[in-house]
Amino acid sequence: MSNTDDPIAKQLIALRRTQILEAATKVFAEKGFHRATTKDIARAAGIAEGTIYTYFASKTDLLLGILDRLNETEQRPEHFSVGLEGDFRVFLLAYLRQRTATLWSNAEVFRAIVPELLVNPEMREKYYQQVIEPTMQVAEEYFRVQIRQGQLREVDVPLTVRAMAGMVLGLLILQLLGDQQLASQWEQLPEVLSTLLFDGLKAQEEHGHAEQ
Questions:
Q1: Residue 27 buriedness (CB in 10 A; 0-12 / 13-18 / 19+)
Q2: Count of beta carbons in the 10 Å neighbourhood of residue 173
Q3: What is the third-level CATH fold of 59-200?
């Protein structure tokens, strides 16, 4: 049996990758992508610099690994499958709470790496293909199942999924720009977003109006 088939070896590899990614996350947040070095990351992880290259081909791959981890790409199918078992609104609120909490606690990491994503075409393409696209596909299938089950009305699924993702990402960018209202009320955003999506902005009609 090769090491790749050995569950213990797989677990050790996963643990080492996590150790390196956690160190890289800390270093990137403190120094930014360009100023950070693999030597800095190795020092923070308590390993030899060469060990990093056993698990990650480059600093770019490290950055993509961090983004993939923060996105919870591997866990998304499980997250959405759980959502199929109950009320959609309850699931969405819980999901938004979990995602905004992750974004908020890693805001400094995003501040350090988002500029690199915007100016580096190769990294941007890899990020979209490896992280964003798989996540969108999982979310789109979840929405289609909800529509087939009658839980949601017919909508343009790809655009709806992207609009929702864009709202959360846009709020993160606004917070990074220094919006104090968001900074002080970040924990309330999931409820606000959920209300907007389900109830809209229009005032509810009075019961008495229907009785006239």
A1: buried
A2: 12
A3: Tetracycline Repressor; domain 2 (1.10.357)
For the chain, domain boundaries? 1-56, 59-200
Residue 167 pLDDT exceeds 80: yes
pTM of the model: 0.78
- From the CB of residue 110, how many other CB atoms can be counted at a distance below 10 Å? 22
153: left (phi over 0), alpha (psi -120 to 50) or beta: beta
Radius of gyration of the chain (CA): 21
Topology (CATH level 3) of domain 1-56: Arc Repressor Mutant, subunit A (1.10.10)
pLDDT computed for residue 206 by the predictor: 55
Q: Judge whether residue 152 has pLDDT over 50.
A: yes
Q: How far apart are the first and last CA of the chain?
A: 77
CB within 8 Å of 108: residues ≥ 6 apart: 29
Place of tokens 């929405």: 143
At residue 11, what is the residue type? Q
pLDDT (tens digit, 9 = 90+) per residue, 82-123?
Answer: 767 778 888 889 889 988 888 888 888 888 888 888 899 988
- Bin 72: left if φ > 0, else alpha if -120 < ψ < 50, else beta: left
Helices (H), the chain: 7-31, 38-45, 49-55, 59-71, 76-83, 88-105, 107-119, 121-127, 133-148, 157-176, 180-185, 189-199, 207-211
